[in-house]
Specification:
This protein is of the alpha+beta class. 47% of the residues lie in helices and 11% in strands. It binds FE2/S2 (inorganic) cluster.
Length: 158
């Protein structure tokens, strides 16, 4: 059993807040993600059993959202949007800059497990492109100077 009793209890409470169980899938995934730090097939099955929602519905929701990593990631999970609005204003260059600053490639985690870097599809903040998400936070209208500032702040939190 991977999920704690506390997580299962929170999931059952989430299910009780909605007229349709299915509406609680994202809250349940969020609870599991906050406990474990990533999600995978075994965790989808546990959630499905805990709240009696079909496994496939849990898995299809989880695999759609990149903010639920599917393998262990560093303390700061950096997701750089590479979709059209962000791409048009330099997302690719920013991602390369982050690779250079962190000393890792996309899809990798720093050896000290502090930072993971991925490039992802649209995060819904196209008007403030280029942007990235770190954990739960959005960072928008990015440029290299802002990236430097953000990395310094994140390093202070380590
Ligand atoms: S294209 Fe980057 S947030 Fe939408």
């Amino acid at each position: 059993m991977i999920l704690t009793d506390e997580s299962v209890k929170a999931m059952k409470e989430a299910v009780g807040r909605y007229p349709k169980k299915k509406s609680a899938i994202l809250p349940c995934l969020t609870i599991a993600h906050r406990q474990i730090g990533h999600l995978n097939d075994d965790i989808y099955r546990e959630i499905a059993r805990a709240v009696n929602i079909p496994y496939v519905e849990i898995a299809e929701a989880a695999t759609f959202y990149t903010f639920f990593p599917k393998q262990p990631v560093g303390k700061h999970h950096i997701q750089v949007c590479h979709n059209i609005s962000c791409a048009l204003v330099g997302a690719d260059g920013l991602c390369s800059y982050l690779e250079e600053k962190l000393g890792i490639r996309k899809g990798e985690t720093t050896p000290d497990k502090e930072f993971s870097l991925v490039s992802v599809e649209c995060l819904g903040s196209c008007a403030t492109a280029p942007m990235m998400q770190v954990g739960d936070d959005f960072y928008e209208n990015l440029n290299r100077a802002k990236v430097d500032e953000i990395l310094s702040e994140l390093k202070e939190k380590t």
